[in-house]
Amino acid sequence: MVLGKKLVVVMPAYNAEKTLEQTYQEIPFDIVDEVILVDDQSKDNTIQKAKSLGIQHVIVHEKNRGYGGNQKTCYAKALSIGADIIIMLHPDYQYTPKLIHSMSYLIAQDLYPVVLGSRILGKGALKGGMPLYKYVANRILTFFQNIMMGQKLAEYHTGYRAFSAQVLKELPLEENSDDFVFDNQMLAQIAMKGFTIGEITCPTKYFKEASSINFHRSIVYGLGVVKTSFQYWFHKRKLCKCRIFDFEKGKKLDVQKFTV
């Protein structure tokens, strides 16, 4: 618990057998109440490794749903077990679990409902081995998005994120893509809804076993980011309606499937 609030860590997993144990062992269980791992049809022994570590909730998708689809399951399950604060931690050890204390306290103390672990604040990205083309693309896309969305974030593309349960309950996350652009659509929804976003600097590690999308998928993701930004801009000015920003009729997470 963090100041009386239940803290749940969710781990969207795909072929994480080699890095899962190291990641899990560094989770601060003095404040983390439960851990959820959702396996998206890994081709290695991620499931067996997760169970051997004693992870409380291991969910296996019957078919590969993609990174965004994995997160939808993660968040729905976390809400179903009564989480007040949810932190997404990749099991590939690219982000350090040691920041969970800092990220969760910012939410528990009602300073921010959303906190991002930013690789760009400070000099953590390139120092940690981020490929130069990804760093440049990150900076260009973030600059573009800040203009289009009226924000001042250091980056939109980190996978290390903490949320209050309220945020996850109010966003129509089921309307988002099941692919990597889900992350970006989610932040656009958060901004549209008016939730404030906090950031803390986060060291990162790029190595062989750490998951990373290839150049082609990066291009597809980048185009999706640009599309999302334009959708935000037009919807904000009531020039068109976009389903992902329909907070009244848009489909929210199906929490009920884990509680029946």
Question: Could you outline the blueprint of secondary structure elements for this entry?
Answer:
Layout: E1 7-13, H1 17-25, E2 34-39, H2 46-52, E3 57-60, H3 66-80, E4 85-88, H4 100-108, E5 114-118, H5 124-127, H6 132-149, E6 161-164, H7 165-170, H8 182-193, E7 197-201, H9 215-236
Parallel strand pairs: 1-2, 1-4, 2-3, 5-7
Antiparallel strand pairs: 4-6, 5-6
Helix pairs in contact: 1-2, 6-9, 8-9
Biggest sheet: strand arrangement: 3-2-1-4-6-5-7
Shape label: globular
Termini Cα gap: 25 Å
Helix percentage range: 25-40%
> Beta fraction of the residues?
5-15%
What is the top-level CATH class? Alpha Beta
Extract low-pLDDT stretches.
Answer: none
Give the CATH H-level superfamily. Spore Coat Polysaccharide Biosynthesis Protein SpsA, Chain A
Kindly identify the CATH topology: Spore Coat Polysaccharide Biosynthesis Protein SpsA, Chain A
- Structurally, the number of domains stands at 1
Strands, total number? 7
- Look at the helices and sheets and give the structural class: alpha/beta
Largest sheet: 7 strands, mixed
- Nearest-angstrom radius of gyration? 17 Å
Overall residue-averaged pLDDT value: 94
* Overall CATH architecture: Alpha-Beta Complex
Spell the H/E element sequence: EHEHEHEHEHHEHHEH
Describe this structure in words.
The chain is α/β, with parallel strands linked by helices and 260 residues long. The protein has one domain: Alpha-Beta Complex (Spore Coat Polysaccharide Biosynthesis Protein SpsA, Chain A), CATH 3.90.550.10. Helix content is 39%, strand content 13%. The chain is built from nine helices and seven strands; from the N terminus they run βαβαβαβαβααβααβα. It has helices at 17-25, 46-52, 66-80, 100-108, 124-127, 132-149, 165-170, 182-193, 215-236, and strands at residues 7-13, 34-39, 57-60, 85-88, 114-118, 161-164, 197-201. The chain has a seven-stranded mixed beta sheet with strand order 3-2-1-4-6-5-7, sandwiched between helices. Strand 2, helix 2 and strand 3 form a beta-alpha-beta unit. Helix 1 packs parallel to helix 2, helix 6 (132-149) packs parallel to helix 9 (215-236) and helix 8 (182-193) packs parallel to helix 9. The radius of gyration is 17 Å and the shape is globular.
